[in-house]
Amino acid sequence: MIFSHLVDLFFNYSSRHPMRKSLFVGLSVFMPAFLFGQNSQSDSQFDAVFRKYTQWFIDFIFYEIPFAEEFKVPWVVLILIGGAIYFTFYFRLINFTGVKTAIRVIKGDYTDIEAVGADVLYEDVTKDEQKKVIQEAIQQEEAAGEVTHFQALTTALSATVGLGNIAGVAVAISIGGPGATFWMIIGGLLGMATKFTECTLGVKYRDVGPDGTIYGGPMYYLRKGLAEKGMKNFGKILAFSFAVLITCGAFGIGNLFQANQASAQFANLFDLNASQTLWVGAGLAIIVAMVIIGGIKRIAKVTEKLVPFMAVLYILSALIIIGVNYMHLGDAFIAIFKGAFTGEGIAGGAVGVMIQGIRRSTFSNEAGMGSAPTAHAAVKTKYPASEGLVALLEPFIDTVVICTLTALIIIIANFDANIVVYGKEISEGVQLTAAAFDSAIPNFSIALTIAVILFAISTMISWSYYGVQGWMYIFGKGKRTRLIYNILFCFGIWIGSGVSLDAVIDFSDAMNFGMAIPNIIGVIILASVVRKELKRYLKAIKIKDKALDKGLEDVKDIL
Length: 559
Known about the structure:
Elements: H1 2-16, H2 21-33, H3 40-61, E1 64-66, E2 72-74, H4 75-90, H5 94-97, H6 99-107, H7 111-115, H8 118-121, H9 127-139, H10 149-160, H11 163-176, H12 179-204, E3 207-208, E4 214-215, H13 218-228, H14 232-249, H15 252-270, H16 274-292, H17 295-324, H18 329-342, H19 349-365, H20 372-376, H21 384-391, H22 393-417, H23 429-440, H24 445-475, H25 479-496, H26 502-514, H27 516-525, H28 527-549
Antiparallel strand pairs: 1-2, 3-4
Helix pairs in contact: 1-25, 3-26, 4-12, 4-27, 6-21, 10-17, 10-22, 10-24, 11-19, 11-22, 11-23, 12-13, 12-18, 12-19, 12-21, 12-22, 13-14, 13-27, 14-24, 14-26, 15-16, 15-24, 15-25, 15-26, 16-24, 16-25, 17-22, 17-24, 18-19, 22-23, 23-24, 24-25
């Protein structure tokens, strides 16, 4: 029934859009084609064939530039961290100076000026005039958007806070030692400036449908923003490239891998066999489908509850582990700072340690990849920079807080339990973190298992939205187009729970990090636009503050 409906949708669409038919066929077939493997032999055969034709792209994206015999740096990481450093100084340390304002925005201190405008509510008006303006504003249409600042933040965080915070950090510590933690934090702090810049652009250049539906992401600011700069054709090429990359990439980082890992955790927890694991995958697919079918509004309502819960669960669990081993906390910080600048026993020395830490931070918080602007574009506001400020909190929460806690757990546990040899790479990061949990409290790793499952589900929910935005940019906006993608996405979750297609996941990961190339190019070109938007928003805040000092009423709770 579902398949026949999907075919019907396909032919209706392709007949109306013949110029896009070939690409539609390619993506529609590519994404579910590998999902029909039913045994390990067919999986491995398909994997080998798929890798044969895609390995060149994977090698290109993850090519490592050799700086010395001991260490190499992926060129994508250089682009991301280079952009982060540039934006940090271009916006005069906005990653530090903007934090206070960002918190006030989330608290709702400026909802009034974002809905109506500071000039209308507070500039050159008396108390009586303000009351009249308020009544008119209540009757008028509010600012475009579908979600609140907090909902947009949690939606974006649900995509970044995931297995990378657990498994990825563990691998980075095993290779780079405790010192990698220091550079991971530095990378997270620098990434805050990138998130501010790209998410401001996401709101600035979004499309608003007749029904109020928001269509956003780098595709739109690359096309429209670069057109304003006299680079119309170049912008179209970058936008289309990004749309293809995020559409396909969502099936790797946000679908197959997450479904496989979540199902594996269920299987380990309840001792399930392969066929039973597929039922777990079906359950995950149904859960995700029930959320994503409602669009960004339902996704935001779920993530605003799920993200705080899973973050608090993991943070409290981590603090319990650290509390049990409090006697090693001081030694852990000494090891982190000493290792960051000496790199004893680590390949490449201090530089090798720095590379591992920064690499993990860029891969974890996704600053510069262009995924987050897709979620933040849906926020309700008249000032794009307001959401950019909110977005800069993401790398802080994801990397500076959660990744650092994971690193501390492993470092502290290693003093007594000797669970890892620094300088030797491990392949199973989740198991190392689980060993750190159990070393403090027997069987406490069950809390980690629950966290991994929740992280995976939340990542799938948000990445489905990212992918469908790219899909609709390519094939057109509409309910049918969205439905086709959502069916493919949920089908991928079911199959991903039962098979492991490493070549497909590697290719999708390359697609994800390939997104950084067109995105960073466009964001650097459009940085001046972001600076103007920041000045406009800060001016609006000053107008309100001065008006309140003169005795006007704060109407944030009325509007």
